[in-house]
Specification:
The complex is a heterodimer. Helix content of chain A is 69%, strand content 0%. Helices cover 35% and strands 22% of the residues of chain B. In chain B, the strands form seven sheets. In chain B, strands 3, 4, 5, 6, 11 and 19 form a six-stranded mixed sheet that branches. Chain B has a five-stranded antiparallel sheet with strand order 13-12-23-22-21, sandwiched between helices. In chain B, strands 1, 2, 9 and 10 form a four-stranded antiparallel sheet that branches. Chains A and B meet through helix 1 and helix 2 of A and strand 4 and helix 9 of B.
């Protein structure tokens, strides 16, 4: 039995093919792993976004409660001793008589 | 040939047959049992397994937000947690209940709540709420205790950041976030969204090992009201002051924009905080703007005056003798609050003479007055998008007696709601067009300005009639008549006062000392920006006339609203001349 002798070219080609296959497989696995990893990150970020949106909503609602006129009125009157202006103290800006008056 | 006998082999064969038979019997028994379990008892056992193994509690969706007309938050749902308990069959009852008792203080469980949990555990309920809608901080605290069987589900809790403001308009929600009053109830299907469902898998000992969301809930849609937070606040504050000062049983104020029918404020007193719905007293929950039927008294003379002038049955200068200060009607004597002498038709309404108005009604006749009352849609709902609106009471013409024509002319024998009277006054303000009131808008107006949006309207009286009534009567009610306390320095005001005696429910007779005082009007007369009704129920001080109790409230509220709306005076208060319009911020 005579053993077939491979040419150098053939060996290189086969090795290149094998390398390419391994590289492709490695890349594919790495790619999949990266995708999964990114998926986890996206999922986590989406959860963070939802949580932050909820926080924004909470803060907006809290702000509305802090700026409620009842509260502002009480602070103005009780803490700052402010009083409502009398009629004669109100000055209308850009107040001018119309034509013919 | 001699037969060779193998006693052992024979015995082995018998044993084999016996064993085979035994196995066959055993297998046959097993098959029967399998048939029993898989076929005969299948549905019952499957249900039992699912009950033990699976739970599918509903997930309430996030409810839509309610905004005021300028986009301020009036009601919003915020995430909270609800603690639940999944009892196990493997563990002694007391041991499980001890864990619930362990969280009693943190979750502020009352004796009654604890008892309810115990009863449900004894009944063998597979899922028990321990405490609904607790703060995330408390939930985290309990979670750290790592108590087996106690878990949490995320829910939403309705929050009303402005507290009691516009409580009767907003209404409130129950523990399951379902609208139970006000716009929360009226627009519940729009606000609530669609429920989702979660799945809890448990082992044989009923310990949960898997939790997942099967169907995400669909959040509800937002709702924009026509209410303006500032105007609502002004109206509520002044109403509360007036009711408390007069020792009245309650009251209501409605502020609207006549041209669009949009309600800018709807206040009712006594009130409640929708954060703690339902209120402790049913009286506090009643929206007096739409759910309080009352005999209007003199504010109803608006309709009598319109009928007289629209049909041209009475001239403005026609004279009526009111000098005696009283008039006999079918055995009853009706009085004026003072003797007024001989009055023109205009003065009869301006000074709110009952004697004169009854004489006017005889010129109009029952059919004409009834038709006009119907045209103004008394006795039927205005259609405002709020639950529980009363129709009022309008008796059919065929049920009218001899007293009905004069009684209706002065606002008795008919029951109305505050919003119906305001709708009628808006017809005058709109120069004869009826625009139904409404409480919701398509979208917010971020500038917060009072911009009219297109509304359907119907002309029900001639423009000429409305104009002449404003010029000759309703403006003069405030200038020279019973409504002088509603005068606003620098602004022209038109309106009508009303004082009606209340009926004693025990005797059915009118009470001389119990009244409903009201004032309805609009400002400025030339181009009305706001219209308003103030109703004070049963003021208990010496002052009980609409002109004394309700008209000053109108003045206080209107002056602040006009300032807030940057509406400049149309008359220079000092010079008494008409002055310029104030430029809006956006035009500068």
């Amino acid at each position: 039995m005579v053993r077939k002798k491979y040419q150098k070219k053939e060996i290189i080609l086969a090795a290149t093919c094998l390398l390419l296959a391994v590289a492709t497989l490695t890349f594919y696995i790495w790619h999949q792993a990266a995708l999964i990893n990114l998926g986890y990150q996206i999922g986590k970020l989406e959860t963070d976004i939802l949580r932050l949106e909820e926080d924004i909503k909470k803060l907006e609602t809290h702000k509305t409660a802090l700026l409620s006129l009842d509260r502002v009125d009480k602070i103005a009157r009780d803490k700052l001793s402010l009083v409502e202006p009398k009629e004669e103290q109100i000055i209308y800006e850009d107040f001018k008589a119309p034509d013919g008056q | 040939m001699n037969e060779i006998y193998f006693p052992e082999e024979n015995r082995l064969g018998k044993r084999t047959i016996l064993l085979t038979f035994f196995f066959f019997l055993w297998f046959f028994g097993l098959t029967l049992r399998l048939i029993e379990l898989q076929v005969i008892e299948h549905s019952r056992l499957k249900a039992a397994v699912l009950k033990q193994n699976q739970l599918k509690p509903e997930i309430n969706p996030e409810r839509g937000t309610i905004y005021d007309r300028s986009g301020k938050i009036m009601a919003r749902s915020l995430p909270v947690f609800s603690a639940f308990f999944l009892p196990s069959d493997e563990e002694p009852f007391e041991q499980q209940f001890a864990r619930v008792r362990q969280v009693r203080k943190i979750l502020e469980l009352s004796d009654k709540e604890l008892q309810n949990i115990r009863i449900k555990m004894e009944e063998g309920a597979p899922f028990i709420w321990v405490k609904r809608k607790i703060s995330p901080e408390k939930a985290e605290f309990v979670r750290r205790l790592n108590l087996s069987g106690i878990d949490f589900q995320e829910e939403h809790k309705r929050s009303y950041p402005l507290g009691a403001l516009a409580a009767h308009v907003l209404g409130g929600v129950n523990i399951d976030d379902k609208g139970a009053g006000g716009v929360e109830f009226q627009h519940n299907s729009r606000l609530q969204g669609e429920k989702g469902q979660s799945l809890i898998l448990r082992d044989a000992r009923k310990r949960p090992y898997h939790l997942e969301v099967l169907k995400e809930p669909t959040p509800g849609q937002d709702l924009v009201l026509t209410i303006d937070e500032t105007i609502q606040y002004i109206a509520e504050r002044e109403l509360a002051k007036a009711v408390e000062a007069s020792g009245a049983a309650g009251g209501t104020v409605i502020v609207s924009q006549p041209s669009s029918g949009e309600i800018l404020a709807m206040a009712s007193y006594p009130t409640y905080d929708p954060n703690f719905y339902p209120p402790s007293s049913p009286e506090a929950e009643r929206n007096r703007a739409i759910q309080f039927n009352f005999e209007p008294g003199s504010t109803f003379k608006i309709i009598t005056a319109v009928a007289a002038r629209e049909l041209e049955l009475v001239g403005f200068n026609e004279i009526f003798d009111c000098s005696s200060g009283r008039i006999r009607v079918a055995g009853w004597t009706i009085y004026d609050y003072k003797k007024m002498g001989v009055l023109t038709f205009s003065d009869v309404i301006i000074h709110s003479s009952n004697v004169g108005t009854i004489q006017v009604s005889y010129h109009i006749g029952p059919e004409n007055l009834f038709k006009m009352i119907n045209k103004f849609r008394f006795g039927q709902k205005t259609g405002i998008e709020l639950p529980g609106e009363e129709n009022g009471i309008l008796h059919p013409l065929k049920a009218w007696t001899r007293t009905s024509l004069p009684a209706h002319a002065i606002g008795y024998e008919i029951s109305v709601t505050a919003i119906q009277i305001l709708q009628a006054m808006n017809v005058i303000a709109n120069r004869g067009c009826l625009v139904p009131p409404r409480i919701t808008r398509e979208r917010p107006d971020p500038a917060g300005l009072i911009e009219a949006s297109a509304s359907p309207f119907e002309r029900i009286i001639a423009e000429k009639t409305a104009n002449s009534l404003i010029d000759r009567i309703f403006e003069k009610v405030v200038l020279d008549g019973t409504g002088q306390a509603a005068q606003l320095n620098g602004y022209t005001v038109a309106g009508k006062t009303g004082t009606a005696q209340k009926i004693d429910p025990a005797t059915g007779n009118y009470m001389a000392t119990r009244h409903v005082a009201s004032f309805v009007g609009f400002v400025p007369v030339e181009k009305p920006v706001i219209s308003m009704i103030v109703v004070i129920d049963d003021p208990r001080t010496d002052l009980h006339y609409g002109g004394q109790v309700a008209a000053p409230v109108f003045r206080e509220i209107a002056s602040r609203i006009l300032l807030y709306l940057r509406q400049p005076p149309s008359i220079d208060p000092a010079k008494k001349v008409v002055t310029a319009q104030l430029k809006r911020e956006s035009e500068r």
